[in-house]
Each structure stands twice: as C-alpha cells, then as structure tokens.
Amino acid sequence: MREGQASAIYRADYQAPAWLIETVDLTFDLDPAKTRVLNKMRIRRNPGVPAQALRLDGDELNLARVMVNGGGTSFKMDGSQLVLENLPEGSDPVELEIFTTCAPAKNTKLMGLYVSEGTFFTQCEAEGFRRITYFLDRPDVMALYTVTLRANRHDYPVLLSNGNLVDAGPLDDGRHFAKWVDPHKKPCYLFALVAGQLVAREQKIKSRAGREHLLQVFVRPGDLEKTEHAMNALMHSVAWDEARFGLSLDLDRFMIVATSDFNMGAMENKGLNIFNTKYVLASQSTATDVDFANVESVVGHEYFHNWTGNRITCRDWFQLSLKEGLTVFRDQEFSMDMAGTPSARAVKRIEDVRVLRTAQFPEDAGPMAHPVRPDSYIEINNFYTVTIYEKGSEVVRMQHNLVGRDGFAQGMKLYFQRHDGQAVTCDDFVQAIADANPGSALAQHLEQFKRWYSQSGTPVVQARGQYDAAAQTYALTLSQSCAATPGQADKLPFVIPVEIGLLGQDGSALPLQLQGTDATTASQTLVLTEATQTWVFTGVAQAPVPSLLRGFSAPVVLDYDGSDAELLTQLAHDSDAFNRWEAGQRLALRYALQAVHADGAVATDILPGDFVAALRDVLRHPTLDAAYKDLVLTLPAESYMAEQLDVVDPQRIHAVRESMRQQLAEALQADWAWAFDTHSATGAYQPDPISSGRRALTGSALLMLCLAARTSGDTAWPGKAYQRFKDAGNMTDRFNALSALVHSGAELAKPALERFHALFKSEPLVIDKWFSLQASNCDRGGQVLPAVKQLMKHADFSLKNPNRARSLIFSYCSANPGAFHRTDAAGYVFWSERVLELDAINPQVAARLARALDRWSKLAEPYRTAAREAIARVAAKPDLSNDVREVVTRALGD
After folding, report:
1. Where does the Peptidase M1 membrane alanine aminopeptidase domain lie (predicted)?
2. What distance in Å separates the CA atoms of residue 811 and residue 773, rounded to the nearest whole number?
C-alpha cells in the first residue's frame, strides 16, 4: 500500500507519553519548493512512565540534522518514526534540535504545510504536524510555542502564527521576519502559520473584563468587502461566550484567515483560525441566506473551540467528541440565541435534527457505525463524522436538559476549574456536569448515561398509551431497544429523556399530573432508564393526543403508531413547534411508504385531501413565521424515506416523492401564488431570520408554481421566474429563481444557467453553486450523469480543489439518489473512478466520497450487486490510501 498496511489503534491501549515537551521554538524559511524548518525543543522524561526511547512521528520529510544538548547524536529510522535511544537519563530537561525540509508546493493532500494560490497555509488536525517536523504528534503533549517566520517580503508580506506578535522587521536580500509567541500551552494539532499577500478587516473590542483585543479577518485582495458579516459574527461570538458561559478571549488578538483550498470547513488553531472561504466570504450579491447563516455558525463554532477544545483538549483522538460534540452544541445554542424569536429558535432546532436524521442515523445503521467515543480506528481522519459532531452534540444537549440551563452553566464552570490547560476525556466532562448537579437525574444515573459515549446505534423508543375514561387516567408505556452494530451485538438500556405533553381532541393543552404527585404542568420530561417503564397521569378528562419527544429531547427513533387524526391535530395545534412540524413529516412519510409498497405505477394522488388541506392551513396561517411554514411544507428527503425501508428501490422512492411534490404544486397552486405575492420582500436586504424565512418561502413557492406550470403548459410562471432571476437584488432570490427553472425542467433553465455563469465566472464560491445545481438536478431521462461528465471537462472545474470537487461530484453521488442509482450501474462506475482519481491526490476527500455507498446492502436488485461490484473494484486497487481502504473494507464487511 502507498502508506503501508495500517493496523487498528485501540482506545484500551492508551498509554501516557514517555516524554513531554515543555517548549517548542520553530523557525521557518518559507519557500514553496523547499521550506526549511528548524525545530528546537526542550523535552523531559515523564516521571510517571517507565523509561523509553523517544519516538517522533514524521511524514514525507527530508531530515538534515539532529542534535542533543548542542552536540551530535545517534538516531535511527523505524518506518516513518525518528527514534532516539541514547538520550540522557534523569529528570533534567534535554535540548533537542531537528532540522528538516519539505516541499509545500507539492502537497496536494492539504495536510501539514502547503501552498494555495501562492499563499502558505497549514492544516495539522488530526495528524498533519508530522508533515512539518518530527514531533510527538499526539494531543496529550502540550507545549509553549515560539515561532519565527522568514520569507520574501514582496511575495509574502503577511506572516502569521499562533498567539501574540512580539517582533518583526526586515532581513537581507528583500526578506523579512515575524516572531510570534503563544502564551498558552497547546497540542501540536493547533499549530498554524499563514504567509502571503493578504488584506485584513480589523476591529478593536473591549471585553467585559475590560481587556482590549484586536480582531482580524484576513483574505486575498479583492475579497475584503465580503468579510463584514464574518467580523460581525466573530464579535457576536466573543460577546455571547462571555455572557452565556463567562468565557473571555484570552489573547491580545484573534485572527481568521480564508483559503479556497481546504479539506474541511474551518480549523480552530489557537488564535489563528484558518477557514474555507465558503464560511468567511459573504455579500448579498454572491451569498445566499443559508451561506450567511453558515458563516455565523462556523465562525461561532471555531471561536468557541478557544475554550472547549483549545484550553481543554482531548487526551487522545478517541475523545474527539469531547471538543467537537460540545462545541457543536455551543454553536447551535449561539445560533438559536442569535435567532431571537421562539419560532426562529424552533426553525434552527428542526434544521439541526434534519441533519442528524438524514446523515447520522444512516451512519449509525451502516458499516461505519461507531460510538460517540470510538473504541478503535485505522485512519483517524475517517472519524470526523456526524456521529462525533452531531450525535455528540445531542449527548451534550441531553445533559443540558437533565440538569437545566443554570445547572449546565455550573457544570461548565466546574469543568474549567478542574481541567483548564489539560488534555482530558469525555468521562471527565460528564463527571463535572454531574458533580455540579448532585441531585439531578444525570447524577443519579451517571454510569448508565455514559453508555451514550460507548454504545453505537440509534435507540428506538416504542410508545404505547392507554386511556381509562372511568378513572380519567392515561398510562404511557415507553420501551427502548437498539439494534446490533458492527462489533456490538447486545446493547444495555440508555438514559433517555423524553419530554411529553398531552393535547385534547381540539388541540388544547391538557394538564399533566403524575400519579402520586401534586404538581401539575403543561409539559414534563420523563427519564427512561429501563427496557420498559410506565407512567400514569391522573385527572385526564378526555382521551388525549400524546405529544412525545418534544423538542427532540433525545437522539432516538420514536415508534408511536398515532392515527392520522391524531397527527392532524398536532399539525394544527401542537404548542411544541418541533412536534407540530414532526406531525406533518410523519404523515407525509406514512403516505410515501404506502405508495412505495403499492403495486403498479406510482399514483398521482398519494396525499389524502385532508392532509393537503392541513398543509394549506399552515401555508395560509396568519401568525406562523414564513421559515417555519417552509419547513412544514417541505417533504421528507428521499434518503430519509430510504432509511425507513428494509429493501430500497431508489427509483421508486424518487418517483413517489416527485409525484407527491407535483401533487402539492398543483393542488395548492393558488396558495403558492398567494404565498409568493405576500412574502416577496421589497426592502433593503437583511440576512436576519425573519427576512430569510420570507425569501425561503417565496423560493419554494416559485419552484412549486413552475412545477405546476410544467403539467398545465402555462409559461407565465417560468417567465416570471426568469425575470426574477435577472432582476434579483440578492443572491438568495436570484439562485432560488434559477433553481426553480432548473428543477422544474423549464426551457428557460439553459439560458439562465449560461447567464448565471457569465455574471459570476470570477466568483469561485458562486460557480460552486452553479456546478452543484446541475449535479443535483432532478434526473429526467438519465441526463444528469452525462451532464456531470461534461462539466468535469469545463475550464472552471478542478479536481484538486476540494470545494469544486464537492460541488460537482459529491452533489451527484451523495445528494442526488434519483440520478446516482441507475439501473445500468453507470453512476456506480463513475463513483469508483472518481474515488480512485481523488485518492491519488487527496485521500481525505476521496474517503468522504467513498462513504456515498455505505448503505449499498439495503439496495434492491440490480442496484445491490452493481454497487458491491463498484466498491470491490475500489478495494482491489493495491495502492489505496489508508483513508479509503478503511471505508471500503468496512463497507464490504471484510
């Protein structure tokens, strides 16, 4: 294999490092072809570990010199590791000096030190620092860093690294230097440097503690006007973390730098966050409302890592969710607090749950299933997953719900008192939350709650209710189970908080009083800890409609066989905004699955009249927010429908959902027209939740009106869409109009796409949208794959740029099941070719594309056999990266 046959690493084998690093002094002479790195470290033996040789990790480095305490020393190479066996005994520090070179311009993996469009960047998480210098590349080795950067002043006028700038000036031969000192200990994965021709938006702020800070957002010249929103998001993040958790910025300055070549969304390097341009650049002419929201969320996420991830970091990579799950929870809370209104908060919660259900639940049920805290891995990059992030966030949210908002804040305070400056575990975090709340359900069931970290899979909670009219009691029985997952056959019961309410037949809230108690509330959280438990409510004057798992209080699948009438009651009246939306989704899913299982051709009237009428009522509702209406009127995704089936026919599912959508377009045509006219904004553009919601609803209405026009032959609405596309004053309205034309198959789609490209050919992020829209288009006659292949030959397409590869190839293979799953297997052949092609360039990106066929074993024939053959074709390649090999091997079950 290209990287050598990798073996699994196990959490149970963790050992503390035999050596510790106290200080690191790095000097870089930056050159794209040959960068020289002088690494001076003060190291010492770890007194708690038996004496061992020092083994330093390295990857694709040229070693020039090794010195110990100022003199030469013997060493050897063991694979990619540099081994020093004859270091001085005793507890005194040892001065170690290592001189290496590397070739950043040739680094297409975008890990370690690399060059993007003439600018130096680094990406060190998880194990990229070993591509810069030989080092103890593990997160539990924390040191103080001093970094000196030297480079040509004309080509690289800006020189940045972690911490505070302490010195800078000219050198001979047109060069210059900058010296940075980070006052806080950090692991090497948080190291960063940037050097290039950059400009900055700057803002000075003063913290609540009275300390002044400089905030900077660095971008390439020409992009500065697109950084205002990112700067505002950063200022809001700093203020929010102080107000919500009492956590202040701890450096003189905080920097964000954007690059278009980046494997991930962003990276939280201490004080120097490196971002994908997608999550920094935003203007109303080039970014949609979704883009604006994502910028705010990701800026917040990376800033919040400054404490939850940087000041306290992971003991080992198995604890990745310690920082990521917690910080996703924090960025979700930040976005909800910034949203303002209860309805806007609910919209954010629904959007987060949709991601969990459509991406994480399938992962939990597939070959790559793993616990929130994995027990083993082959390639750590493959475990930056929705399980670690999104499910990890839900596990934190359950702790928040079990101890309350104030209790969680106290738990966070205790967590930092105990562990600031340390590398710790998930157990340490949950222990702190429980210890700060000794009387809580979390503390009472602490060891059992930790199963959320150790057991993989999505629990199923079955709910059954029984009403006794004579006694006026309602008995609710909850049972839990969890299917076997790879390596885990038997699951023990979880701790599952289930928030519930009861509705009357007219939709009014019924009071909740548990038998044996005096308290009466409108909503309660039941804590399910056994395989089966029953709760009895008294004083229930009528047969209730149960509202279960309110706010999605736990990441579980709810199995409750409520009647259509009950769900329609919830859709019309439930005071819990999440469950009101959920009722509509459950009904739509029920009708969809009935149509999938039905014999013969797909019907054109899948949705019953009372459901269509209920959706009309939501659409016309006088007080519901437009964003919420848009979510309720959006049908469940094809991938989510597929997860409810044991055997999946992707074409049947696609045809059913398209028929349902067409039915809604035609049945509500007058209502869509009303929604479009009523919600079309005329004032100045603002990306706030209310304005964004109005634009989202008008965009959906325009698509539905164009779909209705497709069957009626009416050209008026496609014409209006094209006119709106041309005249729009912001990217959201323009792109919504373009999407309506493309997804409805309107004749005007082709000239609109050509015009769009001509308008934005110099805007890479906008052209990403152009590629993605065509790759995710509804397939009519098998035309999407030929179009994607043709677009790969386009002058603007580059496989080496992760954003561009994702925009075209991932949009087709991972986000367009109706076009990807072809009976002739051409989609699978295309996938296998692209995985192999990408693997030779950037294994991380290739491995993520390889995940597109995780669920192949559920497919019906002929898809199943063809998909397996495609995976086997990739697995048979002898020089696969470890990243891709782990994914395809697990997919095949080998």
Report:
1. 230-449
2. 8
Tokens 């001065």, residue located = 95
Residue 347 belongs to domain with CATH number:
1.10.390.10
Do 850 and 872 meet the contact criterion of CB atoms below 8 Å apart?
no
Residue 56 structural domain: 9-197
- Residue 262's contacts (CB-CB under 8 Å, 6 or more residues apart) are 110, 116, 121, 123, 274, 275, 276, 277, 802, 803
Lookup: tokens for 574? 């439930």
* Cα separation, 63 vs 42, whole angstroms: 19
Distance separating the N- and C-terminal Cα atoms of the chain: 17
Q: From the candidates 127, 268, 302, 763, which is the catalytic residue?
A: 302
CA distance 56 to 67: 14
Q: How far apart are CA 893 and CA 585, in angstroms?
A: 33
> Can you give the pTM of this predicted structure?
0.98
CA torsion 394-400-403-409 (nearest 10°) is 150
CATH code at position 191:
2.60.40.1730
Residue 610: inside a domain: no
Q: What are phi and psi of 470, to 5 degrees?
A: -65, -45
Distance CA 724, CA 720 (A): 6
Q: How far apart, in whole angstroms, are the C-alpha atoms of residue 97 and residue 94?
A: 10
Alpha-carbon distance 744 to 756, whole Å? 17
Cα–Cα distance measured from residue 377 to residue 751, given in angstroms and rounded to the nearest whole number:
49
pLDDT beyond 70 at 680: yes
Active site residue 302: yes
Residue 513's contacts (CB-CB under 8 Å, 6 or more residues apart) are: 519, 520, 537, 538, 539
Q: What is the rounded distance in angstroms from the CA atom of residue 279 to the CA atom of residue 294?
A: 6
Helices (H), 107-156: none
Rg (CA), the chain: 28
Q: For residue 352, tell me if it sits in a domain.
A: yes
Helix 843-850 to helix 882-892 angle, to the nearest 10 degrees?
10
Distance CA 431, CA 447 (A): 9
Q: What is the pLDDT of residues 403-459, one digit of tens each?
A: 999 999 999 999 999 999 999 999 999 999 999 999 999 999 999 999 999 999 999
Final residue in a domain of this structure, among 142, 162, 197: 197
Selection from 134, 146, 25 nearest residue 81 by Cα: 134
Model pLDDT, residue 340: 83
Nearest of 142, 159, 153 to residue 176 by alpha carbon: 153
How far is 546 from 467, CA to CA, in rounded Å? 11
For 123-145, write each residue's pLDDT tens digit: 999 999 999 999 999 999 999 99
Classify burial at 699, counting beta carbons within 10 Å of its beta carbon; exposed 0-12, middle 13-18, buried 19 or more.
Answer: buried
Give the residue from 450, 480, 495 where a domain finishes: 450
Q: Tens digits of per-residue pLDDT, 361-389? A: 999 999 999 999 999 999 999 999 999 99
